[in-house]
């Protein structure tokens, strides 16, 4: 838990404006909007930039994007650690935004200056690939972007929630509404990126296509800093990772001790845990008892009243239960990885499919291939609205739950829809290749096949619906089940699942490309001509893996135990006023 900075009261009649609240949202959301414009505007169509401007082979370009996408989703752990331990959220967001700005500026310059990219292809000649120096600028820019995202992603959501005082009944409900606003704003900014920015990149030029989000990011940094006097600022309260490590070390040091017969003999210190258990203390659970040894008091651990113990030898049962809660979340966290692997194909192979199909709405207007993800975003936003306004009310009648269904059920529905999405994607690829063969275009890699790109809409839309259920349910799960002192870090854990999912995509693509290669040069995932590949087999392989993953998830969800919290009555300090409830806002 973190302490709010409060100004000293003035002994005069000067009226002080209350900090936080709705007035801060434009400043915070502007930063998030521009970050999403940049990330999605770059990533959605970046494979086209790498293959057409830097002349990368398709599989290398796909792996480059998923590698840096994975890195960008892993760095939030670093950003959360710095924020919680040293800098606080405001300064972490500010510095990370500046780092991101530098990376965007470098990438934009590489698109504008001819010497920073290889010369255009001439006719049927073999295209010259980017030099080591040109690739170094590209990789450096992407790395700076990944580091910047690491500071922005885990902090913006939590910093926005910080602006509402949950102890104030009038503001408590606004916290959950804030998450709805956050997803809506994020969705709208992604829609703009996959439509307006991609159109600019394809029809006006990459200089403007990358320059617009770069300028927008610069303006958002200025706006965010201007809002500084209005924000409620939190002091960093120490890294939760340190506490988890202290419990692990304490348990290891006492591994040879016999377990106490009565859990009530385990160490408790309400004063020590006060700042990290405002919402209630975690109650002892009978599983993972080897960790309980960290709370066994020995002669060496004798602590004088009012004195803190050596936390590398002795920890409270609340801190032990924090580690248990994190461990319990692990299997559910892992289940979300493969959905991200499936989702990642939209910005690589699905986009390449779209580039070979008829994308004309009219004779003069053609949908950019990179804008196909607009169908994903529209279906996701529509599903969120339908879920909140209709499905929850219907489900509530049968389940009696305020949220209609639990976040574990919500995630399960998302997994099932994702299975259907990749299954449908395989059949769409079969249809596309049949059209290419029927028109004698199978050997022509860059020819436009006379089949409508709208054959791809079902797979894009199903991925959007799956995300509305699974990804938001996943984030709700982390926020609800994480120890209260780790809720700012919970968002980072959410992003690590995305990171590993992207890396899994890279590994899967590389393995399939290697082991499906034949002596005649054929491959499931060819480098140059998708018409000669077996992309449908790759989609169905992911489908099969997702079916196995769904069975695994169902088993994990059935066995999952919600964290129990002891809630102390506000009007009494007696044990009789304390109650135990499962921490599940469902």
Automatic annotation (TrEMBL):
Keywords of this protein's UniProt record, alphabetized? Membrane, Transmembrane, Transmembrane helix
Q: Which InterPro entries match?
A: MFS_trans_sf, POT_fam
- Give the transmembrane region(s): 90-116, 136-160, 181-200, 206-231, 325-345, 365-387, 407-428, 448-472, 493-517, 537-560
Record has Transmembrane helix as a keyword:
yes
**According to the UniProt entry, where is the signal peptide?**
none
State where the protein is found: Membrane
Q: Name one GO cellular component term.
A: membrane
The record's section on SUPFAM superfamilies has: MFS general substrate transporter (SSF103473)
Name-wise, this protein is: Protein NRT1/PTR FAMILY 3.1-like
């Amino acid at each position: 838990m973190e302490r709010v900075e409060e100004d000293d009261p003035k002994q005069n009649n000067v009226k002080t404006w209350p900090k936080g609240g709705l007035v801060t949202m434009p400043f915070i959301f502007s930063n998030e909007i521009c970050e999403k414009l940049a990330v999605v505007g770059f990533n959605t169509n970046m494979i086209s930039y790498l293959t057409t401007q830097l002349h990368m082979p398709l599989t290398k370009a796909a792996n480059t994007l998923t590698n840096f996408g994975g890195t960008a989703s892993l760095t939030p752990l670093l950003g959360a650690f710095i924020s919680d331990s040293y800098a606080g959220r405001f300064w972490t967001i500010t510095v990370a935004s500046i780092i991101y700005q530098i990376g965007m500026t470098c990438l934009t310059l590489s698109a504008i200056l001819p010497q920073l990219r290889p010369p255009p292809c001439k006719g049927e000649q073999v295209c010259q690939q980017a030099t080591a120096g040109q690739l170094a600028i590209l990789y450096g820019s992407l790395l700076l972007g990944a580091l910047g995202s690491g500071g922005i992603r885990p902090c913006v959501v939590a910093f926005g929630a910080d602006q509402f005082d949950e102890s104030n009944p009038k503001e408590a409900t606004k916290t959950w509404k804030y998450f709805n606003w956050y997803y809506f704003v994020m969705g709208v900014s992604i829609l703009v990126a996959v439509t307006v920015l991609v159109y600019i990149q394809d029809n006006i030029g990459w200089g403007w296509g990358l320059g617009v989000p770069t300028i927008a990011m610069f303006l958002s940094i200025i706006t965010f800093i201007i809002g500084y006097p209005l924000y409620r600022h939190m002091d960093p309260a120490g890294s939760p990772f340190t506490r988890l490590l202290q419990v692990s070390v304490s348990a290891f040091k006492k591994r040879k001790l016999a377990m106490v017969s009565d859990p009530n003999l385990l160490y408790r210190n309400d004063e020590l845990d006060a700042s990290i258990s405002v919402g209630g203390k975690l109650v002892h659970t009978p599983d993972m008892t080897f960790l309980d040894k960290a709370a066994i008091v020995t002669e060496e651990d004798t602590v004088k009243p009012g004195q803190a113990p050596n936390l590398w030898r002795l920890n409270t049962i609340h801190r032990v239960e924090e580690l248990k809660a994190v461990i319990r979340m692990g299997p559910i966290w892992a289940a979300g990885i493969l959905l991200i692997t499936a989702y990642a194909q939209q910005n690589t192979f699905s986009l390449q499919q779209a580039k070979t199909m008829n994308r004309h709405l009219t004779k003069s207007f053609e949908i950019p291939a990179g804008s196909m993800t607009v169908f994903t975003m529209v279906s996701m936003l529509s599903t969120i609205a339908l879920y909140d306004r209709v499905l929850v009310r219907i489900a509530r009648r049968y389940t009696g739950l305020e949220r209609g269904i639990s976040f574990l059920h919500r995630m399960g529905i998302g997994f099932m829809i994702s299975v259907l999405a990749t299954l449908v994607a395989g059949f769409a690829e079969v249809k596309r290749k049949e059209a290419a063969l029927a028109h004698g275009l199978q050997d022509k890699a860059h020819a436009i096949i006379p089949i409508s790109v709208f054959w791809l809409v079902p797979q894009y839309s199903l991925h959007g619906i799956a995300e509305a259920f699974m990804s938001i349910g996943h984030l709700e799960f982390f926020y609800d089940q994480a120890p209260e002192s780790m809720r700012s870090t919970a968002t980072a854990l959410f992003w690590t699942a995305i990171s590993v999912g992207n890396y899994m995509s890279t590994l899967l693509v590389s393995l399939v490309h290697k082991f499906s290669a034949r002596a005649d040069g054929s491959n499931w995932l060819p480098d140059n001509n998708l018409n000669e590949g077996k992309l449908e087999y790759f989609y169905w392989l992911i489908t099969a893996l997702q079916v196995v993953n769904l069975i695994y998830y169902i088993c994990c969800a059935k066995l999952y135990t919600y964290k129990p919290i002891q809630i102390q009555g506000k009007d009494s300090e007696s044990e009789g006023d304390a109650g135990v409830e499962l921490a599940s806002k469902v």
